[in-house]
Specification:
Blueprint (H helix, E strand, L loop, with lengths): L2 E2 L7 E5 L4 E5 L2 E10 L5 E5 L3 H13 L8 E6 L8 E4 L2
Length: 91
């Protein structure tokens, strides 16, 4: 089972390798996708419920024939603050 992706302020280039699905967590069900780090090919599970992630992914999904699979993007946190928004940018 892949580990959960931890995003910091250093950008990561990711490729989504699955369509969204839900997993059970201690806080209930949460939407996730599987992603691969384009640099290392390591596979992770990424939570996609944060508004700053969901808004950008929705835009990218629509431009990708309504599919999450195959989307590539850079992701990072805006700052080290725990509640800082995520920044997603196209390569």
């Amino acid at each position: 089972m892949p580990s959960y992706l931890k995003v910091g302020t250093e950008p990561l280039l990711l490729r989504i390798t699955s369509e969204p699905y839900v997993i059970y967590t201690s806080r209930g069900y949460a939407p996730v996708v599987d992603v691969a780090d384009c640099k290392t090919s390591e596979v992770f599970t990424m939570f996609i419920s944060a508004a700053s992630i969901a808004r950008k992914l929705e835009s990218l999904r629509r431009a990708n024939d309504n599919s999450f699979t195959g989307l590539e993007f850079w992701i990072r946190k805006e700052s080290n603050d725990r509640m800082a928004p995520y920044v997603l940018e196209q390569p």
